[in-house]
Design brief:
The protein is about 40% helix and about 10% strand. The chain is an alpha+beta fold and about 525 residues long. It has a domain of about 50 residues. The strands form 6 sheets. The chain has a 4-stranded antiparallel sheet. The chain has a two-stranded antiparallel ribbon with strand order 5-6. Strands 7-8 form a two-stranded antiparallel sheet. Helix 7 packs across helix 8, helix 8 crosses helix 9 and helix 10 crosses helix 11.
């Protein structure tokens, strides 16, 4: 017996069709829900990754000085990945090396080839991007060699005799609109160097990070470029402390600066033994007697702002430097001549500069750390004139909401401060603007001092005290170093004639004593 299926009615057909339609509609709803969930997860992940700040903590105070962040990165820093690829992207500048071309230093076993940042570059993660920029060590770490064949010895807290900050800033401003800094080129170089970026990360770098870097460099070039164009190149070991400060921090246009204040280039100072300096007139022109304010002001010059400053980091550095002694002088002149020189020094120099007692520097002197009017000193006035009453008034507006850090002690002076001379053997060239290469030359009458000499070398001159500094001809190329021309504005080598009228034997004895500092 056979059976036949009952006929399917139109109603049944419609029910079946609707039943099968439910499956794709349900799947579609599920897919939409899942897609929304994935979007939320990706968005939340991106939000978490690209928000907030963090920085590396160094247990060792010395490592913190070299690599710790002081808070300069959020407002001024460059992405660490960009630091790492720039040498490859601009080979005509870096010549196959790293940031040594600008005089930056690297610690033992570190190099640009390994992706390491130089000494003096702190690192902070800001909204998911690792940024690197200046800390205290960038200006206060240098090298010395006893002979040209020796490897350089790194000494922290001495002036950076190597760093050509002017050349580095010019490089960054110059590449602001270079086609090689376009996103495609940079991302390609990232990948070539092994930086694997996910698609979300690529979008962030392409549309946010790299455009912001270029815009920042262009903005900085617009405000800082006109100033640098008016100034002689600073050369290694020097910086204009306050004019970039006026322009960047307070928005004062270059054309509003008086002609007399536009060149304020001076040497990086040493920062040994900061504790005994509390209460002295600090900075070259003695415009502040507070170590805390001086340190905070220097941090602002390095790129820190009121909003980004890391006070705890700066204070940790200050504490470490408080009793950090310079390494002893390697020179061992004839003891009898040293004693004769010491007697001369105690009569003519100790009241202003303190004195060396064997291996110990004595911070005692009636006028130590006090400002001497420049009409008495007679040295180049440009650095003094660059600090103005207008800048002081602007500075006093900083940190007004925080009585712990508000600036109160800045003042306009009429001269230069008598500096303690601890670690003198590491502090060449001499005078506030580094216009005299050696101690021997400083004891000569100004008209007999070198007119042009090579800066940026780190080989010690055991006879003259300082670094080897051969004479040079401005405008002619050098194999190494920078030809410093004392005829240029701000570079004058006159004044400070103390000891220059001594007889040759007395002058030689005084020099021998100074070599022990």
């Amino acid at each position: 017996m056979t059976t036949t299926d009952p006929p399917v009615t139109e109603v049944q057909r419609e029910l079946r069709r609707r039943r099968w339609l439910r499956v794709p509609v349900g799947l579609l709803l599920l897919i939409v829900l899942l897609a929304g969930l994935v979007t939320v997860v990706i968005g939340a992940s991106a939000l978490l990754r690209y928000s907030g700040e963090s920085t590396v903590h160094f247990a060792d105070a010395e490592a913190h000085f070299m690599h710790g962040s002081i808070g300069s990165e959020p407002a001024t820093g460059l992405p660490v990945r960009l630091w790492q690829v720039l040498p490859e992207m601009f080979p005509e500048v870096f010549e196959g090396g790293g940031y040594e071309v600008f005089g930056f230093l690297y610690g033992p076993d570190a190099s640009a080839a390994n992706g390491d940042l130089p000494i003096g570059i702190g690192q902070r993660t800001v909204r998911g991007v690792d940024l690197g920029w200046f800390n205290c060590a960038v200006c206060h770490a240098g090298t010395v060699r006893g002979h040209a064949e020796e490897p350089p010895q790194l000494i922290l807290a001495m002036p950076s005799n190597n760093l050509d900050l002017y050349a580095f800033i010019e490089f960054l401003l110059g590449i602001a609109d270079d086609p090689r800094l376009a996103a495609d080129n940079v991302l390609t170089e990232f990948e070539r160097q092994g930086h694997q970026l996910g698609w979300v990360e690529r979008l962030v770098w392409r549309h946010f990070v790299l455009p912001r870097v270029r815009e920042g460099l262009l903005e900085r070039r617009a405000v800082l470029g006109p100033l640098l164009a008016e100034q002689p190149a600073w050369g290694p070991g020097r910086v204009d402390t306050f004019n970039p400060y006026k322009i960047i921090q307070f928005g004062i246009p270059v054309d509003e600066l008086d002609d007399s204040e536009r060149i304020g280039t001076a040497d990086f100072p040493s920062v040994f033994l900061q504790g005994p300096r509390e209460g002295m007139d600090l900075h070259w022109d003695g415009n502040n007697a507070s170590l805390q304010e001086r340190n905070l002001s220097a941090a602002i010059g390095a790129g820190v702002t009121e909003e980004t400053v890391d006070h705890a980091s700066i204070e940790r550095v200050a504490e470490w430097l408080s009793d950090l002694e310079p390494p002893s002088s390697p020179y061992q002149p004839d003891p009898e001549r040293v004693q004769a020189g010491r007697e001369l020094y105690m009569q003519q120099c100790a009241a202003c500069h303190g004195y060396q007692d064997g291996q110990r520097y004595v911070f005692e002197g009636e006028r130590l750390g006090q400002v001497v009017p420049n009409d008495q000193l007679g040295v180049d006035p440009a650095r003094l004139d660059s600090y103005t009453e207008q800048l002081r008034e602007y500075q006093l507006t900083l940190f007004q909401d925080d009585p712990r850090y508000r600036f109160r002690h800045f003042r306009k002076t009429n001269g230069y401060a008598n500096q303690p001379l601890d670690g003198l053997w590491l502090r060449a060239p001499y005078l506030h603007n580094g216009a005299v290469p050696t101690l021997y030359d400083l004891l000569l009458p100004p008209e007999e001092r070198p007119v042009a000499f090579v800066r940026g070398l780190d080989v010690l001159d055991p006879e003259k005290g300082g670094f080897v500094a051969p004479e040079c001809t401005p405008g002619e190329p050098l194999v190494e170093g920078f030809c410093f021309d004392t005829a240029l504005p701000g570079n004058g080598n006159g004044g400070h004639t103390y000891g220059t009228d001594l007889e040759a034997d007395a002058r030689a004895a005084l020099l021998d004593y100074l070599l022990t500092f």
